[in-house]
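Look over this record before class:
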Amino acid sequence: MGQPDDLLDARREERPPRGGRHLRRGRRARRRPRRAPRTVAHRRDAPGHGHGLDGHRPRRAPRGDGPTGTPSRSRDRRSRVSGAWIAAFVAVSLAALVTLVLVLGLIRQLGGILERVETLLLDAEGLAPLHGLPVGSPLPSFQATTAAGGTVSDADVRGHPGIFLFLDVDCAPCRALLDELSDDDGPPLPVPLYVLIEGTTEARERLPGWIVTINPEATSLPRSFRSSVRPNAIAFDARGVVVERSTPNAIDHLREMAERIIIAEVEEGRGRAERQRGEGPPVGAMEGSEREG
């Protein structure tokens, strides 16, 4: 039974042509089969991805908590930062304390230096002698404390001759004189010796007991005596009048100065006695002798 020509033509048109592009696509599809796309869920659920050996996903620890018995990384970081801040604060505090101590010591030293400069300026202007009060000047009014805990004033030193000695531990002749005074085994001076030492306390502690040591806190004492050079010795008589001033370099110089003071006192006493004998007996004694006659 034959088919109509129109039906045969329609089937022939629907049949793909042999060979060509369609044939090549088919062969390529057979050679490389097309894979299904991998989704995110597929990758997460795949064995070995984020799962343990048993195939189950391990449980994540809460955030901020580390393994049992060990602190977390963030907590360790915070502790390290806190320790660094504490160490820095302690270091800065110690540095500030050391700086404060140094500044206070420097200010204390600058006080004496400024007073010395002031005295030198006065000396340069001719307002004050360089080596102390001039001869014939009365002692200034003063009051100072001694190393033994007592006090000494101008009223205490009047009535008997004496010597004021001003020293400084930074002065080489002063240190040599201090060593002589500390190691001297001879007799003390025949007059009181008042010593003011500017500097450390070790030098004051070595002096013998017959020396009256004045505390260096009496910074106004050298200025009152107009003493700016070191060493400087100022001698006065029993009336409290300056009779000699010098720059001694040895203890023998102080002994000679003390002997001159004693000799001057003896000569002055003899002169007063001679004047009294030359003037005759007192008026009251003459009246008594007349009444007896």
In short: The longest strand covers residues 162-168.
